[in-house]
Amino acid sequence: MLFLIDYENVGIAGMKGCDYLDRQDYVVIFYSESSKHMEQRALENITASGCVFEICKLCKPGKNALDFYIASKLGELTGAGQEGTAVIVSNDSGFQAVRDYWEKRAAHRRRVLVSPCIEDGIVSGNENNARTGELRRLRQKLGISAYYSDYKEGERISAVLQKLFAGTEYESRIEEIQGMIEGKEKSAKIIYLSSLHLFGRKGGLEVYNRIKSSSELQKAKGI
User: What is the pTM of this model?
Assistant: First the structure.
């Protein structure tokens, strides 16, 4: 994806999601003398991603000057063969005209999105990849009370498992065991098969039998 960032307009809020950039992306930051500083973590996330990275500083202040820079750069890169979805990161509604031109008027059509931050651009791009799926998962709205109940139950199960496997060769693998048994869809059969897969036949049977012997876990997991 191509990200053209109107940093003077969006500031650091527009950089949300920069930790999800990757080497397939192309990032250009447009800024002026009045917006020449950015948080170090954002800049380091960009460079660590391996993406193509450019900056473009406004030469001479003027009304909508950076907007013209961004529109010109989009045309320059498209003319040079840059493909894929382009995201203009800005809160300026005037960029909708740029989007409409490329999608409806240009001889060489391309998809252009306007988003307030990098993360929104990635999600709106709707690419079939891991980062889009992960961001969609993280942006789901959850009930606070239900989430907290699950969190407390997880803490309880962890304490039970630590006591159950204390002094055994499995006490350093409590997180794996907990991951194996947590989840509403985890039936006794699935837990049994997962245990064999993780620990081998002998070890898996021992782990499963210990879990099965715990009345505190039986009640919670229906084993």
Answer: 0.82
